[in-house]
Amino acid sequence: MKAVEYYKKEEYIMKRDKYLNKLISNKDNGFPKVITGIRRCGKSYLLKEIYKAYLLEQGVTEQQILLLELDDDRNFRYRDPLYLGEYVRTYSKNIARCYVFLDEIQMVYSIVNPNLTEGRHIPAKKGDTQVVTFVDVILGLAREKNIDLYVTGSNSKMLSSDIITEFRDKAVNIHLAPLSFDEFYTYKGGNETEALYEYMQFGGMPQAVLKNENDKKEYLKGLFDTTYFRDIIERNKLRKSSSLDELCNIISTATGELLNAEKISNTFRSVRHEKIDPLTVEKYIGYFEDAFLIRAARRYDLKGRAEIGALRKYYFTDPGLRNARLNFAFPDEGQMLENIIYNEMIYQGFTVNVGTFDTVEKNQNGKSVRKTNEVDFFARKGIRQYYIQVSADMSNAKTRMREVRPYFMLKDQIRKIIVINKPIRECLDNNGFTIIGAPDFLLRFIKE
Q1: How high is the mean pLDDT of the chain?
Q2: Would 375 disulfide with which of 119, 233, 355, 381, CB 3.0-4.6 Å?
Q3: Does 217 lie in the same domain as 102?
Protein backbone atom coordinates (compact mmCIF):
# COMPACT_ATOMS: atom_id res chain seq x y z
CA MET A 1 0.00 0.00 0.00
CA LYS A 2 1.44 3.37 -1.04
CA ALA A 3 1.67 6.24 1.43
CA VAL A 4 -0.76 8.36 -0.57
CA GLU A 5 -3.35 5.60 -0.16
CA TYR A 6 -2.55 5.08 3.51
CA TYR A 7 -2.99 8.73 4.35
CA LYS A 8 -6.60 8.55 3.23
CA LYS A 9 -7.12 6.51 6.36
CA GLU A 10 -4.82 8.38 8.75
CA GLU A 11 -3.73 12.03 8.79
CA TYR A 12 -0.40 13.08 10.25
CA ILE A 13 0.90 16.53 11.01
CA MET A 14 3.69 16.21 8.43
CA LYS A 15 3.63 13.71 5.65
CA ARG A 16 6.93 12.18 4.57
CA ASP A 17 5.45 10.15 1.73
CA LYS A 18 8.70 9.73 -0.19
CA TYR A 19 10.42 8.07 2.76
CA LEU A 20 7.40 6.11 3.95
CA ASN A 21 7.01 4.60 0.50
CA LYS A 22 10.68 3.59 0.53
CA LEU A 23 10.17 1.81 3.84
CA ILE A 24 7.00 0.14 2.58
CA SER A 25 8.64 -1.04 -0.64
CA ASN A 26 11.58 -2.54 1.30
CA LYS A 27 9.54 -4.12 4.10
CA ASP A 28 10.42 -7.79 4.77
CA ASN A 29 13.05 -7.81 2.00
CA GLY A 30 15.68 -9.57 4.13
CA PHE A 31 17.97 -6.53 4.36
CA PRO A 32 18.40 -4.00 7.18
CA LYS A 33 17.03 -0.56 6.37
CA VAL A 34 19.60 2.06 7.44
CA ILE A 35 18.09 5.55 7.79
CA THR A 36 20.59 8.42 8.01
CA GLY A 37 20.21 12.18 8.25
CA ILE A 38 21.00 15.31 10.23
CA ARG A 39 19.88 15.34 13.85
CA ARG A 40 16.32 16.54 14.45
CA CYS A 41 15.24 16.04 10.82
CA GLY A 42 12.55 13.52 11.77
CA LYS A 43 14.17 10.06 11.51
CA SER A 44 12.72 8.88 14.80
CA TYR A 45 9.32 10.37 13.97
CA LEU A 46 9.32 8.58 10.63
CA LEU A 47 9.86 5.22 12.34
CA LYS A 48 8.10 5.63 15.68
CA GLU A 49 5.01 7.46 14.47
CA ILE A 50 4.45 7.24 10.72
CA TYR A 51 5.87 3.80 9.89
CA LYS A 52 4.77 2.21 13.15
CA ALA A 53 1.20 3.43 12.55
CA TYR A 54 1.35 1.97 9.05
CA LEU A 55 2.46 -1.42 10.42
CA LEU A 56 -0.32 -1.42 13.01
CA GLU A 57 -2.83 -0.56 10.29
CA GLN A 58 -1.61 -3.63 8.38
CA GLY A 59 -2.31 -5.92 11.32
CA VAL A 60 1.10 -5.99 13.01
CA THR A 61 0.69 -6.03 16.83
CA GLU A 62 2.44 -3.80 19.34
CA GLN A 63 4.32 -6.82 20.71
CA GLN A 64 5.80 -7.44 17.24
CA ILE A 65 7.46 -4.02 17.23
CA LEU A 66 10.62 -3.50 19.29
CA LEU A 67 11.83 0.10 19.56
CA LEU A 68 15.18 0.71 21.24
CA GLU A 69 16.27 4.34 21.57
CA LEU A 70 20.01 4.17 22.05
CA ASP A 71 20.40 7.86 22.94
CA ASP A 72 18.21 7.24 26.01
CA ASP A 73 20.34 6.81 29.15
CA ARG A 74 18.05 4.00 30.27
CA ASN A 75 19.37 1.94 27.36
CA PHE A 76 23.06 2.64 27.90
CA ARG A 77 23.76 -1.08 28.43
CA TYR A 78 22.80 -1.77 24.84
CA ARG A 79 25.42 0.61 23.48
CA ASP A 80 27.67 -2.41 23.89
CA PRO A 81 27.22 -4.22 20.55
CA LEU A 82 27.12 -7.74 22.01
CA TYR A 83 24.58 -6.85 24.72
CA LEU A 84 22.47 -5.16 22.04
CA GLY A 85 22.44 -8.24 19.84
CA GLU A 86 21.67 -10.49 22.80
CA TYR A 87 18.73 -8.35 23.93
CA VAL A 88 17.11 -8.17 20.48
CA ARG A 89 17.42 -11.91 19.93
CA THR A 90 15.97 -12.67 23.36
CA TYR A 91 13.01 -10.33 22.81
CA SER A 92 12.19 -11.67 19.35
CA LYS A 93 12.88 -15.34 20.06
CA ASN A 94 9.24 -16.48 20.23
CA ILE A 95 7.78 -13.92 17.82
CA ALA A 96 7.08 -15.19 14.32
CA ARG A 97 7.78 -11.79 12.73
CA CYS A 98 9.43 -9.01 14.72
CA TYR A 99 9.99 -5.46 13.46
CA VAL A 100 13.04 -4.04 15.22
CA PHE A 101 13.75 -0.28 15.31
CA LEU A 102 17.23 0.67 16.55
CA ASP A 103 17.26 4.46 16.94
CA GLU A 104 20.59 6.39 16.88
CA ILE A 105 22.82 3.40 16.20
CA GLN A 106 25.98 5.56 16.23
CA MET A 107 25.70 5.53 20.03
CA VAL A 108 26.87 1.90 19.95
CA TYR A 109 30.62 1.82 20.56
CA SER A 110 33.11 -0.76 19.34
CA ILE A 111 34.66 -3.30 21.70
CA VAL A 112 37.69 -5.53 21.44
CA ASN A 113 36.76 -9.10 20.55
CA PRO A 114 36.02 -10.67 23.99
CA ASN A 115 37.71 -13.89 22.89
CA LEU A 116 40.96 -11.96 23.14
CA THR A 117 40.24 -10.35 26.53
CA GLU A 118 39.16 -13.34 28.62
CA GLY A 119 35.52 -12.47 28.04
CA ARG A 120 35.75 -8.86 29.20
CA HIS A 121 34.03 -6.15 27.15
CA ILE A 122 36.73 -3.52 26.60
CA PRO A 123 36.06 -0.44 24.42
CA ALA A 124 38.22 -0.50 21.32
CA LYS A 125 40.87 2.13 20.70
CA LYS A 126 41.83 3.72 17.43
CA GLY A 127 43.98 1.29 15.50
CA ASP A 128 42.53 -1.87 17.09
CA THR A 129 41.70 -4.42 14.40
CA GLN A 130 40.06 -7.31 16.24
CA VAL A 131 36.87 -5.47 17.19
CA VAL A 132 33.10 -5.97 17.31
CA THR A 133 31.12 -3.01 15.94
CA PHE A 134 27.51 -2.01 15.36
CA VAL A 135 27.98 -3.16 11.76
CA ASP A 136 28.50 -6.71 13.01
CA VAL A 137 25.32 -6.45 15.08
CA ILE A 138 23.24 -5.10 12.20
CA LEU A 139 24.43 -7.75 9.76
CA GLY A 140 24.03 -10.50 12.36
CA LEU A 141 20.47 -9.52 13.32
CA ALA A 142 19.52 -9.16 9.67
CA ARG A 143 20.29 -12.86 9.19
CA GLU A 144 17.63 -13.83 11.72
CA LYS A 145 14.69 -15.14 9.68
CA ASN A 146 12.05 -13.62 11.94
CA ILE A 147 13.53 -10.10 12.20
CA ASP A 148 12.91 -7.15 9.89
CA LEU A 149 15.47 -4.55 10.97
CA TYR A 150 15.37 -0.74 10.79
CA VAL A 151 18.27 1.43 11.95
CA THR A 152 18.70 5.21 12.26
CA GLY A 153 21.88 7.25 12.61
CA SER A 154 22.72 10.95 12.68
CA ASN A 155 26.18 11.22 11.18
CA SER A 156 27.91 9.89 8.13
CA LYS A 157 30.70 8.28 10.17
CA MET A 158 28.33 5.35 10.43
CA LEU A 159 28.48 5.15 6.64
CA SER A 160 32.15 5.93 6.12
CA SER A 161 33.98 4.35 3.20
CA ASP A 162 35.06 1.35 5.26
CA ILE A 163 31.56 0.69 6.58
CA ILE A 164 29.97 1.17 3.15
CA THR A 165 32.27 -1.59 1.92
CA GLU A 166 30.99 -3.89 4.67
CA PHE A 167 27.35 -2.95 4.00
CA ARG A 168 27.61 -3.20 0.22
CA ASP A 169 24.66 -5.16 -1.17
CA LYS A 170 23.72 -6.07 2.41
CA ALA A 171 21.63 -3.07 3.47
CA VAL A 172 19.21 -0.48 2.09
CA ASN A 173 20.31 3.10 2.78
CA ILE A 174 17.54 5.70 3.10
CA HIS A 175 18.84 9.24 3.59
CA LEU A 176 16.33 11.53 5.29
CA ALA A 177 16.54 15.31 4.87
CA PRO A 178 14.65 18.11 6.61
CA LEU A 179 11.31 18.95 5.01
CA SER A 180 11.78 19.84 1.35
CA PHE A 181 9.87 22.86 0.10
CA ASP A 182 7.42 20.45 -1.52
CA GLU A 183 6.79 18.75 1.84
CA PHE A 184 6.72 22.09 3.67
CA TYR A 185 4.10 23.51 1.31
CA THR A 186 2.00 20.33 1.53
CA TYR A 187 1.84 20.98 5.28
CA LYS A 188 1.52 24.78 5.24
CA GLY A 189 -0.61 25.40 2.14
CA GLY A 190 -1.77 28.93 1.41
CA ASN A 191 -0.05 31.40 -0.90
CA GLU A 192 2.92 29.81 -2.68
CA THR A 193 5.05 32.95 -2.67
CA GLU A 194 4.48 33.62 1.03
CA ALA A 195 5.24 29.99 1.86
CA LEU A 196 8.48 30.14 -0.13
CA TYR A 197 9.58 33.31 1.66
CA GLU A 198 8.92 31.70 5.06
CA TYR A 199 10.82 28.58 3.99
CA MET A 200 13.65 30.73 2.65
CA GLN A 201 14.03 32.30 6.10
CA PHE A 202 13.41 29.38 8.46
CA GLY A 203 13.74 26.21 6.38
CA GLY A 204 12.17 22.85 7.05
CA MET A 205 13.48 21.42 10.31
CA PRO A 206 10.26 19.76 11.54
CA GLN A 207 10.28 21.19 15.06
CA ALA A 208 11.06 24.68 13.76
CA VAL A 209 8.13 24.56 11.34
CA LEU A 210 5.74 24.02 14.25
CA LYS A 211 6.95 27.08 16.22
CA ASN A 212 6.17 30.81 15.99
CA GLU A 213 8.72 33.16 14.41
CA ASN A 214 10.66 34.10 17.54
CA ASP A 215 10.75 30.52 18.77
CA LYS A 216 11.92 29.35 15.34
CA LYS A 217 14.95 31.62 15.56
CA GLU A 218 15.93 30.55 19.06
CA TYR A 219 15.39 26.87 18.26
CA LEU A 220 17.52 26.93 15.10
CA LYS A 221 20.34 28.91 16.73
CA GLY A 222 20.27 26.57 19.69
CA LEU A 223 20.59 23.49 17.47
CA PHE A 224 24.10 24.55 16.50
CA ASP A 225 25.36 25.17 20.01
CA THR A 226 23.63 22.38 21.92
CA THR A 227 23.50 19.66 19.29
CA TYR A 228 25.55 19.98 16.10
CA PHE A 229 28.68 21.67 17.41
CA ARG A 230 28.64 19.60 20.58
CA ASP A 231 28.41 16.42 18.51
CA ILE A 232 31.22 17.49 16.18
CA ILE A 233 33.51 18.54 19.04
CA GLU A 234 32.93 15.35 21.04
CA ARG A 235 33.09 13.00 18.06
CA ASN A 236 36.32 14.48 16.71
CA LYS A 237 37.87 15.25 20.12
CA LEU A 238 38.41 18.96 19.41
CA ARG A 239 39.80 21.12 22.20
CA LYS A 240 37.97 24.32 21.25
CA SER A 241 35.19 25.40 18.92
CA SER A 242 36.08 29.02 18.01
CA SER A 243 37.76 28.13 14.71
CA LEU A 244 34.99 25.68 13.83
CA ASP A 245 32.42 28.35 14.65
CA GLU A 246 34.06 31.03 12.49
CA LEU A 247 34.55 28.61 9.60
CA CYS A 248 30.83 27.81 9.69
CA ASN A 249 30.06 31.53 9.54
CA ILE A 250 32.33 31.96 6.51
CA ILE A 251 30.64 29.11 4.65
CA SER A 252 27.23 30.55 5.60
CA THR A 253 28.13 33.95 4.18
CA ALA A 254 29.60 32.39 1.02
CA THR A 255 26.72 30.01 0.28
CA GLY A 256 26.68 29.39 -3.47
CA GLU A 257 30.18 30.77 -4.08
CA LEU A 258 32.99 28.69 -5.53
CA LEU A 259 35.39 27.88 -2.71
CA ASN A 260 38.39 25.73 -1.94
CA ALA A 261 40.38 25.21 1.25
CA GLU A 262 43.02 27.78 0.35
CA LYS A 263 40.44 30.49 -0.39
CA ILE A 264 38.64 29.80 2.88
CA SER A 265 41.95 29.83 4.75
CA ASN A 266 42.73 33.28 3.34
CA THR A 267 39.27 34.55 4.27
CA PHE A 268 39.70 33.20 7.80
CA ARG A 269 42.99 35.05 8.10
CA SER A 270 41.45 38.35 6.98
CA VAL A 271 38.41 37.99 9.26
CA ARG A 272 40.01 36.56 12.39
CA HIS A 273 43.59 37.70 11.84
CA GLU A 274 44.58 34.15 12.66
CA LYS A 275 46.22 31.47 10.57
CA ILE A 276 44.42 28.25 9.76
CA ASP A 277 46.08 26.01 7.22
CA PRO A 278 44.14 24.61 4.24
CA LEU A 279 44.46 21.03 5.52
CA THR A 280 42.71 22.00 8.76
CA VAL A 281 40.02 23.78 6.72
CA GLU A 282 39.42 20.63 4.69
CA LYS A 283 39.24 18.56 7.86
CA TYR A 284 36.71 20.90 9.48
CA ILE A 285 34.57 21.01 6.33
CA GLY A 286 34.60 17.23 6.46
CA TYR A 287 33.20 17.43 9.99
CA PHE A 288 30.30 19.58 8.76
CA GLU A 289 29.63 17.13 5.93
CA ASP A 290 29.81 14.19 8.33
CA ALA A 291 27.13 15.84 10.45
CA PHE A 292 25.02 16.35 7.29
CA LEU A 293 25.02 20.13 7.83
CA ILE A 294 26.34 20.95 4.36
CA ARG A 295 26.73 19.31 0.97
CA ALA A 296 29.26 20.06 -1.76
CA ALA A 297 28.34 20.66 -5.40
CA ARG A 298 31.34 19.87 -7.56
CA ARG A 299 32.28 21.62 -10.79
CA TYR A 300 31.50 19.86 -14.06
CA ASP A 301 33.16 20.72 -17.38
CA LEU A 302 30.19 21.14 -19.72
CA LYS A 303 32.36 20.61 -22.79
CA GLY A 304 34.76 17.98 -21.50
CA ARG A 305 31.89 16.17 -19.69
CA ALA A 306 33.77 15.41 -16.48
CA GLU A 307 34.01 16.67 -12.88
CA ILE A 308 37.01 18.94 -12.45
CA GLY A 309 39.13 20.78 -9.91
CA ALA A 310 39.04 21.41 -6.19
CA LEU A 311 36.67 24.40 -6.32
CA ARG A 312 33.12 23.63 -5.25
CA LYS A 313 30.01 25.27 -3.84
CA TYR A 314 28.65 24.43 -0.41
CA TYR A 315 24.95 24.40 0.39
CA PHE A 316 23.28 23.94 3.74
CA THR A 317 21.03 20.93 4.19
CA ASP A 318 18.47 23.37 5.56
CA PRO A 319 18.27 27.10 4.70
CA GLY A 320 17.00 27.97 8.17
CA LEU A 321 20.16 26.55 9.72
CA ARG A 322 22.27 28.67 7.38
CA ASN A 323 20.37 31.80 8.38
CA ALA A 324 20.70 30.93 12.06
CA ARG A 325 24.49 31.12 11.72
CA LEU A 326 24.10 34.71 10.50
CA ASN A 327 21.64 35.61 13.29
CA PHE A 328 18.87 35.93 10.71
CA ALA A 329 20.31 39.02 9.08
CA PHE A 330 18.29 39.97 5.99
CA PRO A 331 19.10 37.10 3.64
CA ASP A 332 20.53 37.39 0.15
CA GLU A 333 17.50 36.07 -1.74
CA GLY A 334 19.63 34.87 -4.66
CA GLN A 335 21.85 32.81 -2.36
CA MET A 336 18.91 31.36 -0.48
CA LEU A 337 16.94 30.54 -3.61
CA GLU A 338 19.98 28.82 -5.08
CA ASN A 339 20.39 26.76 -1.89
CA ILE A 340 16.71 25.75 -1.94
CA ILE A 341 16.75 24.78 -5.62
CA TYR A 342 19.88 22.68 -5.12
CA ASN A 343 18.31 20.85 -2.17
CA GLU A 344 15.01 20.33 -3.95
CA MET A 345 16.62 18.84 -7.04
CA ILE A 346 18.66 16.45 -4.90
CA TYR A 347 15.39 15.53 -3.11
CA GLN A 348 13.74 14.85 -6.47
CA GLY A 349 16.57 12.49 -7.47
CA PHE A 350 18.66 14.69 -9.78
CA THR A 351 22.44 14.61 -9.98
CA VAL A 352 23.49 18.25 -9.64
CA ASN A 353 26.80 19.91 -10.48
CA VAL A 354 28.07 23.44 -10.97
CA GLY A 355 28.43 23.84 -14.73
CA THR A 356 31.61 25.41 -16.09
CA PHE A 357 33.30 25.84 -19.46
CA ASP A 358 36.17 27.87 -20.89
CA THR A 359 36.12 30.21 -23.87
CA VAL A 360 38.80 32.26 -25.61
CA GLU A 361 37.79 35.90 -26.01
CA LYS A 362 39.35 39.24 -26.90
CA ASN A 363 40.03 41.65 -24.06
CA GLN A 364 39.89 45.45 -24.32
CA ASN A 365 43.37 45.48 -25.84
CA GLY A 366 42.42 42.95 -28.51
CA LYS A 367 44.47 40.20 -26.88
CA SER A 368 43.06 36.67 -26.72
CA VAL A 369 42.42 35.55 -23.16
CA ARG A 370 40.90 32.44 -21.66
CA LYS A 371 37.72 33.02 -19.67
CA THR A 372 35.88 30.59 -17.40
CA ASN A 373 32.09 30.73 -17.64
CA GLU A 374 29.69 29.32 -15.09
CA VAL A 375 26.16 27.95 -15.08
CA ASP A 376 24.68 27.67 -11.59
CA PHE A 377 23.58 24.06 -12.06
CA PHE A 378 23.84 21.24 -14.54
CA ALA A 379 21.13 18.76 -13.48
CA ARG A 380 20.50 15.25 -14.76
CA LYS A 381 17.88 12.62 -14.05
CA GLY A 382 17.47 9.77 -16.50
CA ILE A 383 17.06 11.32 -19.96
CA ARG A 384 16.25 14.76 -18.49
CA GLN A 385 19.11 17.29 -18.60
CA TYR A 386 18.89 20.96 -17.66
CA TYR A 387 21.13 23.98 -17.41
CA ILE A 388 19.77 26.20 -14.63
CA GLN A 389 20.52 29.79 -13.74
CA VAL A 390 19.03 31.18 -10.52
CA SER A 391 18.31 34.87 -10.03
CA ALA A 392 16.41 36.86 -7.43
CA ASP A 393 15.36 39.40 -10.08
CA MET A 394 15.74 39.73 -13.85
CA SER A 395 14.27 43.21 -14.29
CA ASN A 396 17.72 44.81 -14.45
CA ALA A 397 19.16 44.58 -17.98
CA LYS A 398 22.73 44.07 -16.73
CA THR A 399 21.66 41.24 -14.43
CA ARG A 400 19.67 39.62 -17.22
CA MET A 401 22.61 39.73 -19.62
CA ARG A 402 24.92 38.19 -16.99
CA GLU A 403 22.52 35.30 -16.46
CA VAL A 404 21.83 34.50 -20.13
CA ARG A 405 25.33 35.12 -21.50
CA PRO A 406 26.61 31.55 -20.87
CA TYR A 407 23.55 30.16 -22.65
CA PHE A 408 24.40 31.97 -25.89
CA MET A 409 27.80 30.25 -25.90
CA LEU A 410 26.42 26.75 -25.22
CA LYS A 411 25.30 25.45 -28.59
CA ASP A 412 24.04 22.04 -27.47
CA GLN A 413 20.39 20.99 -27.23
CA ILE A 414 20.19 20.79 -23.45
CA ARG A 415 17.26 22.81 -22.10
CA LYS A 416 18.31 26.18 -20.70
CA ILE A 417 16.30 27.45 -17.72
CA ILE A 418 16.30 30.66 -15.70
CA VAL A 419 14.55 30.46 -12.31
CA ILE A 420 13.53 33.80 -10.81
CA ASN A 421 12.04 34.68 -7.45
CA LYS A 422 8.73 35.77 -8.92
CA PRO A 423 5.25 34.16 -8.94
CA ILE A 424 5.16 33.54 -12.69
CA ARG A 425 4.40 30.40 -14.65
CA GLU A 426 6.72 28.75 -17.14
CA CYS A 427 7.24 30.64 -20.41
CA LEU A 428 9.85 31.16 -23.14
CA ASP A 429 11.79 34.33 -23.85
CA ASN A 430 12.75 35.59 -27.32
CA ASN A 431 15.84 33.36 -27.33
CA GLY A 432 13.96 30.16 -26.55
CA PHE A 433 15.22 30.01 -22.96
CA THR A 434 12.75 28.85 -20.31
CA ILE A 435 11.82 31.52 -17.75
CA ILE A 436 10.01 30.20 -14.70
CA GLY A 437 9.08 31.46 -11.25
CA ALA A 438 10.58 29.67 -8.26
CA PRO A 439 7.26 28.34 -6.85
CA ASP A 440 6.26 26.85 -10.21
CA PHE A 441 9.70 25.33 -10.67
CA LEU A 442 9.81 23.79 -7.19
CA LEU A 443 6.24 22.56 -6.90
CA ARG A 444 5.55 21.43 -10.44
CA PHE A 445 8.34 21.58 -13.03
CA ILE A 446 10.96 19.33 -11.43
CA LYS A 447 8.32 16.84 -10.26
CA GLU A 448 7.01 16.10 -13.77
Answers
A1: 90
A2: 355
A3: no
